[in-house]
Model the fold of this input.
Amino acid sequence: MSLGTVILAGLTHPSRPSNALVLMGGGARTAYQAGVLRALASMLRLHPEAPQSFPFQVLVGTSAGALNAAYLASCATTGLDAFDQLARFWGRLRSSSVYELNVSPWVRASRVIAAASLARHARAHGALINNMPLVDTLHHAVSLPGIDEALQARTLDALAVTASSYTSGVHWTFCHTASDDTAQTWSRPGRRAEFQPITIEHLMASSAIPFIFPSTALWVDGRREFFGDGSMRQVSPLSPAMHLGASKVLVIGVGQPQRSAFAGAGADAHGNGSAPSIGSIAGHAMASVFHDTLQADVEQAQRISQTLRQLPREVAAVLPYRSVEVLAIQPSQSLDALAQAQAHELPSATHNALSGLGALRGGGAALASYLLFEPGFVQALMALGEQDAFARKAELLAFFTS
Done:
């Protein structure tokens, strides 16, 4: 988050104070966000000074976080019940609702067989895994008319979804407002925004995990480009919320500082570290794609905003800025460890393929955790999200009541 972004966002004059919810990506791990938000709904219902209507005016989502954001937007007119509906959606979800992988049980026999089988699948589908089941799931779960209804009723001011263009290398933020044709776009080095109605195709593009899921075509600047996961090249996750007029930002990530320690669990009896498995390497690469920019962006935004608030009042009055309050929540426990305990729930074809690649040994469950859309893992994630939210109850309530 640069000072330039803070100042340029300050030139935006929202018609009302806006709370923004920023939901980061992470495949199945984003069930954690549903737990945090379900706990938040419980807190707000019991607080006499807290809003009982939908408490966010701006929703920003990346990757699977974009699916959560769009789902919430589609039922935002139901108020706090939207968070309970999101939790129920995750409770019904299964891996078969998201993807399919048809490989022989023999792939678990060796890495060579597994690699050859996955290579054939990649040539046939343009990626390792076919995610067409997710298209049908989203069409049934996310009401696009419901999003328009929330925008027209002014329950929401904006829904934004990020995606990364394989064609141009630009990181795009697609914004949907009540009047997309009159909205002002922004352009920064390597990242741009465009205002257009969010569709299922935008959600598929944003959640297309590199190598795992195929790219999706979208139209920008009058031409077709191919897009993948919005977490790629996302150097400033908070920027869209600020450009869209947010005065407060709640961001829920699914990263964790404990990941690297868990991935190194292959030490020998003398305490010497062993070489990482292919699963550990893949998990480390996934973490780099999904999580590395969030903490730095939050810290920088908080630092810049604190500095601006400390300026003399007469100086602040003539500067083009808005102070933005940022509250970030991330898992307090290792999601890799949770995935390790639930890896047996993976569909047999996926389990066989990952086993054949040696991607379920040691810290390899980090890779499996992105694909583990099964009840045991989902419920454990939501329970952890609720636990973490209640541990920060005072901060959360102050965010909405101060």
